[in-house]
Write a structure and sequence with these properties.
Belongs to the ParB family. The chain contains 14 helices and 5 strands. The chain is an alpha/beta fold and 308 residues long.
């Protein structure tokens, strides 16, 4: 290979290149950068008779054209580049520069794997990435188009990590619909990765638990933690207030219940009746302290809490 400046008009782009989405805003920004400090990285081309075939650097080429320059710095490959090697070079360069969006990246890697009849391990080695990372990138291809588009949105709560969790759930349950339900909940409730994992943990632990109830349990915990933080801050000012002490007592009960659920999962039948009696007694006491509780049924109160 050799390096020199070549005429822009002598360069042809390949129709089967990796990148398909070209942001005019980003190309404009790159053009301004090149105008100010020059072209810091050459494009890569292959010599074809008296012309050149672009191998890598489509964005740089477009940016230099915007800057009205006649020539561009290029690394010239003299030998023939096979379609497979072309895609590998483009992929590696774009992966190193992080120039591809998640869907473009996954589609390109998948084409590279199929064209060369590679395993994921072999493809990861050729592209210079960890196999687990490559698998994470490819998961997007198994998702519905709706979720693929969500990942590309800047303000979407769904990330590749969420898709990986959903993919694992679908594989373990052999039910893609469970993954869809999970991702719909992520979008609707803006679930973090940690909250999404908590939903899955509940679903795995209680196999007959509907997905909606697992999500509700995580949302309830989210709201309780917000309230707990608020009261913790408030208690610094009113540490001897009886109402604050009462709240701390309930908070401790909730913490103990959550700990029991995580470790044991299910209350022995011998203890269920006694605990239910304690709960009903507590409910009656709360009805005296908070008269509004007496105006509605327990079922409706629970529905109101879930709605909030």
């Amino acid at each position: 290979m050799k390096y020199k400046e070549i005429k822009i008009t002598s360069i042809d782009s390949r129709p089967d290149q990796v990148r398909t989405d070209f942001s005019e805003k980003r190309i404009d920004s790159l053009a301004k950068s090149i105008a100010e400090v020059g072209q810091l990285q050459p494009i890569v081309v292959q010599k074809k008779s008296d012309r050149y075939l672009l191998i890598a650097g489509e964005r740089r080429l477009r940016a230099v054209k915007k800057d009205k320059k006649e020539k561009i710095a290029a690394v010239i490959l003299e030998e023939e580049v096979s379609p497979e090697k072309f895609r590998q070079i483009q992929l590696i360069e774009n992966l190193q520069r992080q120039d591809l969006n998640p869907l473009e990246r996954a589609i390109s890697i998948n084409k590279f794997i199929e064209a060369n009849d590679l395993t994921k391990k072999e493809a990861a080695q050729k592209l210079g990435v960890a196999r687990t990372t490559l698998t994470l990138w490819l998961n997007i291809l198994d998702m519905k188009e709706k979720y693929q588009k969500e990942v590309l949105k800047a303000d979407s709560p769904i990330t590749l990590s969420h898709l990986s969790l959903a993919h694992a759930l679908a594989s373990r349950t052999d039910n893609p619909n469970k993954a869809n339900q999970l991702l719909d909940a992520v979008i609707k409730h803006n679930l973090s990765r940690k909250e999404t994992q908590a939903v899955i943990d509940l679903f795995y632990k209680y196999l007959h638990l509907p997905m909606a109830e697992a999500v509700d349990a995580v949302l309830l915990k989210r709201e309780r933690m917000k309230l707990k933080d608020y009261w913790a801050e408030d208690n610094k000012k009113y540490s001897h207030n009886l109402a604050r002490k009462l709240f701390r007592s309930f908070s401790n009960i909730n913490d103990n219940l959550e700990e029991f659920m995580e470790e044991e999962g299910k209350l022995p039948e011998a203890d269920q009746e006694e605990l239910l009696d304690e709960f009903l007694y507590l409910y009656q006491i709360m009805g005296i302290l908070i008269p509004e509780l007496k105006k509605d049924s327990l079922d409706n109160l629970l529905k109101q809490i879930k709605t909030k």
